[in-house]
Specification:
Blueprint lengths: L6 H14 L8 H19 L4 H5 L5 H25 L3 H15 L4
Helix pairs in contact: 1-4, 2-4
The structure holds magnesium ion.
Length: 108
């Protein structure tokens, strides 16, 4: 069974991949956040004309499921690279946000 890689290891692999190709010069925060938006739109495009019921079953179709996983990877890759160049810890940012939302939206 393949072990799920950790976030820091994936960020290091992404950085090494870009550095080996001298792509770091293109990885400005502006370029990375723009690419992130494009990839998020590619993910949304898969669902664009589906009914709610079809969208809930999208992973039942092997081809569609592959496209979803591929675009999820693209979105996460650009988000992690964006965080790396700005020194944002994405897990800490998410944890802080959940803490704030738990305070903002108490269970009634
Ligand atoms: Mg893509």
């Amino acid at each position: 069974m393949t072990e799920t890689p950790d976030l820091a290891g994936l960020q290091r692999r992404l950085a090494d991949f870009a550095a080996a190709r001298d792509w770091g010069q293109y990885h400005t925060p502006k370029n990375l956040v723009t690419a992130l938006g494009v990839e998020a739109a590619e993910l949304a495009e898969i669902f664009q004309w589906l009914t709610p019921e079809q969208s809930a079953r999208v992973m039942d179709d092997e081809g569609a499921a592959h496209r979803v996983r591929d675009e999820v990877a693209d979105v996460l890759a650009y988000l992690l690279q964006f965080c790396a160049v700005l020194g944002v810890d994405p897990l800490a940012a998410l944890s802080d946000k959940i803490d704030r939302n738990e305070g903002r939206f108490p269970v009634t």
